[in-house]
Amino acid sequence: MLRLLKYVNNIRALQAFQLIRTGALFLISIIFTKKNPFTGEYFLPTGEIGIYETFLIIAGFVSFFWISGMLQSLLSVYNNNKAFSSKDKNPVFFNIFILFTLLGIIAAVFVWVLETPISRIIGGLSGGKIPYMKILFMYIVLSCPVNLIEYIYLLKNKPLMIIWYGSITFTLQVICVICPLLLGYDLGYGLYGLVFVNIIRFIWLVFIVYKYSQLEFSAAFLKEFIKLSMPLILSILIGGSASYIDSFLVSYKFDEATLAIFRYGTKELPFVSLLTIAFSNAMTPRFSDPANIKRPLLELRKGGTRLMHYIFPATLLIILTSKYLYPVIFNPNFADSAVLFNISNLLIIIRFIFVTTILIGLKDTKIIFSASILELTVNVILSIILIDFMGINGVAIATIIAYVINKIYLIYYLRKKHNIRLSQYLDLKVYYFYVACLFVCFFVSFIL
To answer: Rounded to two decimals, what is the model's pTM?
Structure first.
């Protein structure tokens, strides 16, 4: 155990957790497209996969923004807030657990009450009903607060527990979702398996909140926490809504089978965004002191360069082979997803520009909100225009353009306001070399 601890720190543990999480989701999506060895039929037809993706889209859309914003705020307020002094059993976890649970219930009620309008916006849902609505309600209530678990372990400096928790619960998730389908039951039983796993996670969360937090409610702390979180919540809502709006637009224009092809294609390599986001989150608290910013800038630059040497080559290889791999990994119905996948993986060009990491650490978050509005505006306008000319590929291209404009805007602001140059937190020579290789491989993939 001590020997293992030498190699596992919080950054690596959070990166490993995200890899395990996405690996489990990716494995489930692959199995859905394969044939059941007992029945000889596909586990799920393409239309049913579209319903499963719709289930996840709705659950994510009503929660992703406030969960992400509050988790980022948690990293900065745990040991630095006006309500509680730093101590062994800090009441912060208990208060945020209460808040997350309450907001999860509100999100589920929101979907329940607005079921008919939501089903009409998504399109393709018969009778104004959302499939498996009762299961979706339970899933939203349970899945929102359990996002706290890995961050509680992170703040308590328990990296091995992050990995153990991820390994156990996501292995269980694959089993509980797939086994009912393997036995010939319909998708609903697989979704009940998903709810069952989240019940286990919720019990796990209650246990560690009791273990690591004093049960002391504080309205003053929650007021401070929400005030700090709001700019991040709004910026993530605006910026992150684009992917959900894209899915809704595809749903509205096409059928559920096309939505499944779109959702299966518009994915980055699982480890790209997860490793970079985990690295970014772990680095954010180090920028809390503007007077001593040179050292964390250097760490950000070196850490980003190390990641580039691993992530870029793997991405280049996958882009060149995706046309051959997609029909094999999934099934021939998803061959068209390969082009979308290659387009989506162009996002790697902005993943190593950690400008928001610095801005959040400096508590300069208003500009992130402004950049998110710009990004969403560009994305929606271009998606509506390009979907008529290029189909679902146009929606993916619009997303890339919008993300790049967002980053350029923030890079300029950081240079102008804080006098921090791009070269201080990004190795430009290495970066430009890999970006050039990326575009060469991207165009070669079409020739192949």
So the answer is: 0.73
* CA gap 438, 444 in Å, rounded: 10
Three state DSSP letters for 306-368: HHHHHHHHHHHHHHHHHHHHHHHHCCHHHCCHHHHHHHHHHHHHHHCCCHHHHHHHCCCCHHH
Q: What is the pLDDT of residues 343-362, one digit of tens each?
A: 888 889 989 998 988 887 78
Tell me the mean pLDDT in the region 208-218: 90
Based on the domain organization, do 255 and 276 belong to the same domain? no
Q: Do 125 and 88 share a structural domain? A: yes
CB 156 within 8 A of CB 6: no
Question: Tell me, what amino acid is at 188?
Answer: G
Burial of 259 (0-12, 13-18, 19+ CB in 10 A): buried
Least confident range from 102-111, 136-145, 255-264: namely 255-264
d(CA 65, CA 249): 20
Does residue 272 share a domain with residue 260?
no
What mean pLDDT, rounded, does the chain reach? 84
